[in-house]
Specification:
- A 5-stranded mixed sheet has the order 2-1-3-14-4. Strands 8-11-5-12 form a 4-stranded mixed sheet, sandwiched between helices.
- The protein folds into 4 domains: 37 residues, no CATH class; 226 residues, Periplasmic binding protein-like II (D-Maltodextrin-Binding Protein, domain 2), CATH 3.40.190.10; 164 residues, 3-Layer(aba) Sandwich (D-Maltodextrin-Binding Protein, domain 2), CATH 3.40.190; 64 residues, no CATH class.
- The chain has 24 helices and 17 strands.
- It is globular, with a radius of gyration of 25 Å.
- The longest helix has 23 residues.
- Strand 1, helix 2 and strand 2 form a beta-alpha-beta unit.
- The two termini are 48 Å apart.
- The chain is 42% helix and 11% strand.
- By secondary structure, the protein is α/β, with parallel strands linked by helices.
């Protein structure tokens, strides 16, 4: 077996009647290009035959880096992991950052010590750096060389979206929705929610929390009525953790609840300077000054936040309901009235509807194959396996006869004992079965919609609450790849990450205004205008690629 190690990979389409001549010519040009065709005796891969089928008896362990320090799942001995290993020959050794994800990635890039596969958030600036530094294979070349079946199981729209300017595809997304997916399904909601603990909210009169006055009063009332819960101090507000870029809850999420636009008159709109946004940041500052926001809000990491959700410690939260599903199930089993429900949250002064983004074509994470991979042909075959309808059904439903049975309607129905465990003890469920997207790195949520069971009571309400507010706007999920502009953008993000906690900790509103003015001046010095122009250019390009401007004579719904 010829294993390719660098960027000169064979393309099956190059290997036809003139394969020998092509190879000879290229070899005369450079020895490295001698690998442009399959080795002698090897056949051209059959596009209709999944490559993983021929590897079942050839065992290999691939290292898979997942860039989230909260991810603690192992490959284990569960039903799904065992089945994948039996059918593909691949076992996985997951690697995660023990601490700061950025520092871990920086160290990996500096050392060149990369695992076989990598999964990062699509928005991470390291994605562009890794690609531009030539550290990962083009998936299209690996597919042509080893597994043309990849083209059968991948989405053309996602491939087009993730095609690099050089014509190559270096990554493939999970949790991605295309415009066609939104046209085909009416039950795709947003993840972003404003959540309140149902029993506390009801006890204080189910107040309107859409206005600064109503929000502040509800927080004060909750604190007065429930100073403690289960013997621990009540935390009035829960948010995503503060990091070097800021706080997701108090940026994109809050801005979307306030229906702040991304652009106006064909130019990028400065959402950070929007009057409604600043007004609400000052609400949080005042609550902090008055003693209703604890210090731990600024220091807790995501794992600690999620743990406190499971304890019911927060009164209200700006949080994605999908990220606390397991904790919701636990709370429901313990006391149904103590779960979190979604309600209308912070709104702009006009009272406009929230504009919560449905997951776009970018998805959530992207997966790449490292040029350090010990077996790139196995990595691409594993990706194809997991991306296929067969693999998705396994990853989501498990194994027929073990975790589910096929009903008269042809749809999978989880066995009662499996469903009960899923809804009561996710850790044990993962250990035994490993389905329901335990291994989510290449999950295709749109494909899985047809297999999903109706959401259980603690999960259904937050999901269904988002339906009226969900807006498909993937054109704004652009990533700046120009190295200089991306560096400027990152410096601006870090400047915001530094000033945001200072704004909330400011002793007076006047000090808040002073600090924010200094931030705007620094932002300009760091190149904000250039970033804004490049961002808008990418947005316009994204609209054309998605045909949101009708330039391709398509009829893509919003």
């Amino acid at each position: 077996m010829t294993v390719l190690r660098r960027s000169h990979l064979p393309r099956a389409k190059r290997c036809g009647r003139r394969a020998a001549a092509c190879t000879l010519l290229l070899c005369l040009l450079t020895v490295l290009l001698s690998s442009c065709a399959p080795a002698s005796g090897e056949s051209v891969p059959d596009p209709a035959a999944p490559a993983w089928r021929k590897y079942a008896d050839d065992k290999v362990t691939l290292d898979w880096y997942v860039n989230f320090n909260w991810f603690t799942t192992t490959w284990g001995d569960n039903v799904v992991a065992k089945t994948i290993t039996e059918e593909t020959g691949v076992s996985i050794n997951f690697i995660t950052p023990g601490g700061n994800e950025w520092e871990k990635l920086d160290a990996m890039i500096s050392s060149g010590d990369f695992p076989d596969l990598l999964t990062l958030g699509f928005w991470e600036p390291h994605v562009g750096l890794i690609i531009n530094e030539g550290l990962v294979y083009p998936l299209n070349e690996l597919a042509d060389a080893y597994d043309p079946y990849f083209w059968e199981v991948s989405s053309p729209q996602r491939l087009s979206w993730y095609t690099h300017p050089d014509g190559n595809i270096y990554s493939y997304p999970n949790s991605s929705y295309t415009p066609a997916d939104y046209e085909a399904h009416n039950n795709i909601g947003a993840n972003q929610t404003f959540l309140v603990r149902a029993d506390i909210y009801k006890a204080i009169g189910s107040p309107d929390m859409t206005t600064p006055e109503g929000f502040s009063q509800a927080v004060r009332d909750a604190h007065a009525a429930f100073p403690a819960t289960d013997g621990q101090p009540l935390l009035t507000i829960g948010l995503y953790d503060f990091n070097k870029d800021g706080c997701y809850s108090l940026e994109e999420m809050l801005m979307n609840f306030l229906a702040i636009p991304f652009e106006k008159n064909g130019e990028r709109y400065d959402r950070f300077s929007d009057p409604d946004y600043l007004r609400w940041l000052k609400v949080f500052r005042q609550l902090r000054e008055d003693g209703y926001i604890a210090d731990e809000l600024f220091i807790d990491r995501r794992a600690q936040v999620v743990e406190k959700v499971g304890e019911g410690r927060y009164f209200c939260m700006l949080y994605q309901h999908t990220d606390i599903a397991d904790q919701q199930i636990y709370l429901y089993e313990k006391a149904p009235e103590g779960t979190y429900i979604a309600i209308d949250g912070p709104s702009n002064e006009r009272g406009d509807k929230h504009t919560l983004p449905g997951v776009g074509i970018n998805g959530w994470t992207v997966t790449m194959i490292s040029k350090n991979s010990k077996a790139p042909e196995r990595a691409i075959a594993l990706m194809s396996y997991m991306m296929s309808e067969y693999g998705q059904k396994l990853i989501y439903c498990g194994v027929e006869g073990v975790t589910y049975d096929t009903g008269a309607d042809g749809n999978p129905a989880l066995k009662p004992e499996v469903l009960e465990l899923l809804n009561s003890d996710r850790v044990e469920y993962n250990r035994l079965y490993g389905a329901d997207n335990t291994y989510w790195m290449l999950q295709d949520n749109a494909m899985q919609l047809s297999w999903q069971n109706a959401p259980q009571p603690p999960l259904a309400q937050p999901k269904e609450w988002t339906f009226p507010y969900t807006v498909y706007m993937p054109e704004y999920d652009v990533t700046i790849t120009d190295p200089e502009v991306a560096a400027a953008y990152q410096r601006i993000r870090e400047a915001w990450g530094s000033v945001l906690p200072q704004l909330l900790l400011a002793p007076t509103e006047q000090e808040f205004d002073r600090l924010f003015g200094e931030y705007l001046a620094l932002r300009d010095d760091l190149g904000y205008d250039r970033v804004a122009r490049e961002w808008m250019r990418l947005v316009d390009e994204a609209k054309r690629k998605l045909d949101l401007d009708g330039s391709l004579n398509g009829d893509v719904g919003r």
